[in-house]
């Protein structure tokens, strides 16, 4: 296992980049601690796979350095970095048994057979595949194939980091929760440094202790799942994480405060910064129907079981609220109240309020 440091990292697929728009990865500085569980989360094209390929050694960055435990590995090939990767499609040998698939990475490195047998038995027990050890991999279901692919990454005890690149994409939805739980359990048992790349917020938030949210080649926030939900540092984080995502509403900053649709809105604290495009961010969980507040007309009500999502129009702007209990009718006139402690101002997308003391 290793601490991983990315220092002043940038990458462009163009030979002569002329500006930020030519970089797939804009400047990134990150430290991932030894034994941590991390996720790279963002939409397709945001730079997740590029960053993963740079860490693994499949790609040399245009600028910056990669360090494993303070050792510079930027120019080292993958086989000299002691990494393991689990890909979107299971990488196993269909003609081999499960036992031989798990043993292959060790045999390939000349490990003695007694150690191989012990290690394979240990990993098989962790994965709950002991009864499958003598079955050919070609006869396995997709979720079990991915389990074996994970096991091949974990069977070596000399790896610096195990990286997962969208490993559950091809798994049936009803089986994904089982593999997510198993992967979390495996991390807690082996305490290897793990990096999980995904565009699925549920996968990232249930696996990782720290989530790195990326957009357009930039890291916009690093935090725990709770921090990302409770206090998004950027409107993209608020919109991307949560279902439904954060309400991002046009705002006007005046000497008297912050206004939305001509009405003053109480925020979590003092406004910082000046200029730029200003917006209010408040999650639907912190918007409620009230006796007084912003006048609105209900446009849509979606009952999702434990609660409902009410979409109401404040002037020409839609606002979503998560509501429990009695629901308004479509077209009803209502009032919306924002919880001040979770209502914030954003300036050009970035958080621009301070927490009240």
How would you concisely characterize the structure shown here?
The protein is α+β, with helices and mostly antiparallel strands. It is 24% helix and 32% strand. It has two domains: 4-230, Rossmann fold (3-Layer(aba) Sandwich); 243-351, Nucleic acid-binding proteins (OB fold (Dihydrolipoamide Acetyltransferase, E2P)), CATH 2.40.50.140.
Radius of gyration: 24 Å
Q: Can you give the helix content as a percent range?
A: 10-25%
CATH class of the largest domain: Alpha Beta
Number of strands: 22
Question: What is the fold-level CATH name, i.e. the topology of the largest domain?
Answer: Rossmann fold
Number of domains: 2
- Strand proportion: 25-35%
Q: SS-based structural class?
A: alpha+beta
End-to-end distance: 41 Å
Q: Count the DSSP helices.
A: 8
| Largest beta-sheet details | 6 strands, mixed
The CATH superfamily of the largest domain bears the name P-loop containing nucleotide triphosphate hydrolases
Q: How do the helices and strands follow one another from N- to C-terminus?
A: EEEHEEEHHHEHEHEEHHEEEEEEEEEEEE
Calculate the mean pLDDT score and round it.
Answer: 91
Give the overall form. globular
Low-pLDDT sequence parts: none
CATH architecture of the largest domain: 3-Layer(aba) Sandwich
Organism: Tateyamaria omphalii
InterPro entries: AAA+_ATPase, ABC_transporter-like_ATP-bd, ABC_transpr_FbpC, ABC_transpr_MalK/UgpC-like, Mo/tungstate-bd_C_term_dom, NA-bd_OB-fold, OB_MalK-like, P-loop_NTPase
Family: Belongs to the ABC transporter superfamily.
Pfam families: ABC_tran, OB_MalK
